[in-house]
Write a structure and sequence with these properties.
This protein has two domains: 74 residues, Helix Hairpins; 126 residues, Sandwich (Immunoglobulin-like). The radius of gyration is 24 Å and the shape is elongated. The relative contact order is 0.16. Helix 1 runs antiparallel to helix 2. Helices cover 33% and strands 26% of the residues. It is an alpha+beta fold. Pfam families: COX2, COX2_TM. InterPro entries: CcO_II, CcO_II-like_C, CcO_II_C, Copper_CuA, Cupredoxin, Cyt_c_oxidase_su2, Cyt_c_oxidase_su2_TM_dom, Cyt_c_oxidase_su2_TM_sf.
Length: 221
């Protein structure tokens, strides 16, 4: 883990890869506009020529209305495309139900019998406030459906490296798809203020090969 990292997380899912690409694409447009406007302002400040007889110019009005519209369209279209991709859920191989509590998480693997556990923050951890006693294993390169809810107040289940942030709302089920394409341990935290111990609700996901996941399921009890 790189504590001094100022860029985005290394990706662990295709969705996060697309989010980073969209971020870079949008930043390129923003930097281009900022550079152009700065250059024009600099040229205007150095320009000694002016005219007090120009009251209007229809062509300029059309141009500086049309160009921002086109730029916004180039940002909005890939943004909407990515939004629909994030909501798409097709033939999940595994369903995990996640329940938020004050102040811990509980997990239930609905496709198997009696595979459920609670996950509390580990008191003795290398990474402060980020490790748990029971991490959440998921199989590599498998489409997974996550269902979240809460027993008490509003929580938010978040794994930044996978581009996932999903609210856990009392009395409501939210769902999202997840696919991990890189093995490893990925950490997150509750991202919705939920009380005095809000900072002590870490999340740890272990992405492991399928054969190890099957072995974990068999040996769970």
């Amino acid at each position: 883990m790189d504590w001094m990292k100022i860029s985005l997380y290394d990706t662990a899912s295709p969705i996060m890869e697309q989010l980073i690409l969209f971020h870079d694409y949008t930043m390129l447009i923003i930097v281009t506009i900022l550079s152009l406007v700065s250059f024009l302002m600099w040229k205007m400040m150095l320009n000694n020529y002016f005219s007090n007889k120009i009251l209007e110019n229809q062509m300029i009005e059309v141009v500086w209305t049309f160009i921002p519209t086109v730029v916004l369209a180039f940002i909005a279209l890939p943004s909407l495309h990515l939004l629909y991709i994030m909501d798409e859920l097709k033939n999940p191989l595994l369903t995990i139900k996640i329940m938020g509590h004050q102040w811990y998480w509980s997990y239930e693997y609905n496709d198997f019998n009696n595979v459920e556990f609670d996950s509390y923050m580990s008191p003795n951890s290398t990474f402060r406030l980020l490790e748990v006693d029971n991490s959440t294993p998921i199989p590599l390169n498998c489409q997974i459906r996550l269902i979240t809810s809460s027993y008490d107040v509003l929580h938010s289940w978040t794994i930044p490296a996978m581009g996932i942030k999903m609210d856990a709302t009392p009395g409501r089920l939210n769902q999202i798809s997840m696919l991990g394409n890189r093995t490893g341990k990925y950490m997150g935290q509750c991202s919705e203020i939920c009380g005095v111990n809000h900072s002590f609700m870490p999340i740890v996901v272990d992405i492991i090969p399928v054969k190890y996941f099957i072995s974990w399921i068999k040996n769970f009890n």
